């Protein structure tokens, strides 16, 4: 089965540096196959017969700690999970000069529609949707300072998500289908 591992907090601001070629080798060392990395922010598509996403996460977190000395949270999503997210994304949402559109992938502890109640949402500028496994959030860049999107950083909830922009999310989906 195809999966993606979304690593939280690597190669951000010069911290937790991880070389993607070495990370690919780590995944292969612990039995993952068809391993493909995408950009430097910790997106790894792979195949495995392991039956549990939680079990896969534990294997990968331990391997990353062993090989890199880093305690990194790893969120694993199946192709079906990513399909659900991508199909819920409006085609008009982009991450470009005019628009900022992100997918906040949720750890299981927060994966419920009630998570929206923990967010500061400005209905005048923010468009926010919950789908199983993620929060979809979009705002025109000219309104970003009015958006609640930037108020999530530093919150307890922020530690329970890993964020990818919609362009990256769609590319991950494409890679998983190949």
From TrEMBL:
Q: What is this protein called?
A: DUF1697 domain-containing protein
Q: Tell me the superkingdom of the source.
A: Bacteria
According to its UniProt entry, this protein's organism is Lederbergia graminis
């Amino acid at each position: 089965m195809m999966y993606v591992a979304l690593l939280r907090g690597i190669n951000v601001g010069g911290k937790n540096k991880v070389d993607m070629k070495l990370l690919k080798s780590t995944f292969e060392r612990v039995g993952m196959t068809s391993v493909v990395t995408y950009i430097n922010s910790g997106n790894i598509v792979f195949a495995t017969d392991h039956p549990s996403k939680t079990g896969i996460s534990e294997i990968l977190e331990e391997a990353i700690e062993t090989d890199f000395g880093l305690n990194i949270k790893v969120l694993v999503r199946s192709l079906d999970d990513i399909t659900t997210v991508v199909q819920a994304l409006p085609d008009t949402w982009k991450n470009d000069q005019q628009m900022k559109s992100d997918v906040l992938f949720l750890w299981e502890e927060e994966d419920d529609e009630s998570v929206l109640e923990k967010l500061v949402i400005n209905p005048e500028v923010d468009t926010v949707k919950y789908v199983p496994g993620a929060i979809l959030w979009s705002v025109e860049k000219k309104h970003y300072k009015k958006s609640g999107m930037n108020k999530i950083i530093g919150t307890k909830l922020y530690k329970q998500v890993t964020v990818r922009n919609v362009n990256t999310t769609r590319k991950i989906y494409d890679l998983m289908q190949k």
